[in-house]
Amino acid sequence: MALPWTLHGDGKTVAPGEVVAPGERLSWPRTIGLGAQHVVAMFGATFLVPLLTGFPPATTVLFSGIGTILFLLITQNRLPSYLGSSFAFIAPVTAALASEQAADPMGAALFGIVAVGVMLALIGALVIWTGTGWIDVLMPPVVAGAIVALIGLNLAPAAKSNFDQAPLTALITLAAVLLTTVLFRGILGRISILIGVLVGYIAAVLQGQVDFEAIQQAAWVGLPEFHLAGNPFADAALWGLLPAFLPIVLVLIAENVGHVRGVAQMTDPSVNRQTGRALFADGVATTIAGFFGGSGTTTYGENIGVMAATRVYSTAAYWVAGFVAILLGLSPKFGALVNTIPAGVLGGATVALYGLIGIIGVKIWVDNKVDFSRPVNQFTAATALIIGIANFTIEFGSVVFNGIALGTVAAIVVYHAMNAIGKARGTA
Fold first, then answer.
1. Distance separating alpha carbons of residues 97 and 211, to the nearest angstrom
2. 401 secondary structure, DSSP code
3. Alpha carbon of 380 to those of 143, 144, 155, 169, 423: distances in Å?
4. Phi, psi angles (nearest 5°) of residue 268
5. How close are the terminal C-alpha atoms of the chain, in Å?
6. For residue 1, is pLDDT > 60?
C-alpha cells in the first residue's frame, strides 16, 4: 500500500515562503529527525503531569503515543498534532487522589478522566454534525480566557508546596528555565522547561537528593503499570467527585479549537473542517488513557511552535513521534528514571509552567481584543478568577464543586446573565 504523503520538492529543503503541508513530507531521515524534535518538545510538559499527580510516567507517555496515532487516524491524516498530557486535569485529579470517601482514589481519578473523555467525544460528534458556531456563542473569548487562566492560577499553592521542599534546587531549576528561553533560539528555546528540569535534576543529584536504586532494578523493556478506572456503580463516592472534572471539557474544547485554527491559518483554511474530528479524537484518546491508568490528553501548543519554526506541518513527523513515545512507554527503566525527579525540581518548573497556563488565558483576551472597558467583561473575568484562585468550594452531600468548577460556571453564567439583563433593560 502506498504511503499517504507526497514528497515536498527535493525532500531536503523548504523554499522561503513555502510550508510542507500535512499531506507532504521531506525525506525520511529528515522526517524522523523532525519526529524526534516533536518528542522532545512535548516531553517536558507531558512527563510533568504524572509526576505532579502521582500517575505512572511510563503509562502516561505510552498512552500519549497511542492517543497521537489515534488522533491522526480519526482526523484522516490531515491535522498535524501531538496529544500530550493536559495540565487542566491536575487539580481535580489531585483532589480525587486525596479523597477519603472513594474506596480506590486512583480509580476515582481515572473515572473522572474517562467521564471527561466521553463527554468530549460526544461534543466532537455534535460538532461534526452542527459545526462550531454554538461553541463560539457559549464560550466567547472573555469566558474562554477566564477559564483557562483560572486553571493555571488555581494550581499556585501546589507549585509553592513543591518549591518549599527544596528551595535552592527549585530556584536553580526556575533560573535555568528562564535563561534558556532567552539564551537560545529555535528548538532549544522552545524546550526551556525540559532543559530547566535537566539542570535542576543535576543540581539535585549534586546535593544528594536523588535515589538511583529504583532505576538500577528496573528492566529495560516491559509493560508499564496499568490501573483500571473506578466503577461508579460499585462506588457511589465517584459521582461526588465528578463535578470537579466536568469543567475541564470546556478547556479541552478551547485548546483543540485553537490548535485547529492555528494550523489552518498557517497551512490551509480547509483544515478547520477537522475541528469536530479533532474533538472526537481527543475525547477517544482521553477515554482510553483514563480506562487504563494514563493522564487525560490534549493537543500541544509546544509542537505548534516546532512546526512554526521549521515550516514543516507534515503528519508523517507525528507518526514518528507517536511511535517513539510508545517505545519509551514500554521501558520500565525510563519510567523509573522520571520518577526520581525530586520535588524541588518540580517546584521550580511549575512556578513557571502554572503561571504560563494563566498567561495563555490572558493571551486569549489579547488575541481576540476583548474590550475590558465593558462592565460585563470586567465582572466575568474578575468573578471567575477570584473564585478559581481562592479555590471556593461547595459541597452537597458527597458532591464537591471545587474552585475550577465554580469559576467555570461563574464565567459562563455571569457573562450570559449580565448580557441578557443588560439587553432587556437597555443598559448593555
1. 25
2. E
3. 7, 11, 20, 38, 16
4. -150, 125
5. 60
6. no
In the block, which residue shows the cell 460585563?
376
Q: How far out from the chain centre does Cα 72 lie?
A: 17
C-alpha–C-alpha distance, residues 133 and 128, integer Å: 11
CA torsion through residues 122, 124, 126, 132, sign: positive
Q: In whole angstroms, what separates CA 14 from the centre of its chain? A: 30
Q: Which position has the grid cell 510550508?
A: 19
pTM score, whole prediction = 0.82
Q: By the 8 A CB rule, do 253 and 268 touch?
A: no
Q: Is 192 helix (H, G, I), strand (E, B) or coil?
A: helix
Rounded CA separation 137/390 (Å): 28
200 closest CA partner among 192, 181, 90, 57 = 192
Q: For the chain, how many residues are written?
A: 428
Alpha helices for 155-300 (secondary structure H): 156-165, 167-183, 186-190, 192-206, 213-217, 237-245, 248-266, 275-292
Phi-psi category of 379—alpha, beta or left, where left has phi over 0 and alpha has psi -120 to 50?
alpha
Task: Cell 471539557: give the residue.
Answer: 249
* Residue 231 DSSP label: -
Half-sphere exposure of 91 (CA within 13 A, CB side): 28
Question: Grid coordinates standing for 103?
Answer: 474506596
- Among 192, 190, 198, CA closest to 180: 192
38: its cell numbers = 516533536
Q: Using the 8-state DSSP alphabet, how is residue 225 labeled?
A: -
Q: Specify the pLDDT at position 337.
A: 85
How many C-beta atoms lie closer than 10 Å to residue 185's C-beta?
A: 9
Give the mean model confidence (pLDDT) for residues 301-330. 85
The Cα–Cα gap between 65 and 63 comes to: 5
pLDDT in tens, 252-281: 888 888 778 878 877 778 888 899 999 999
Contact between 128 and 307 under an 8 Å Cβ cutoff? The reply is: no
DSSP for 143-189 reads HHHHHHHHHHHHTHHHHHHHHHHSHHHHHHHHHHHHHHHHH--HHHH
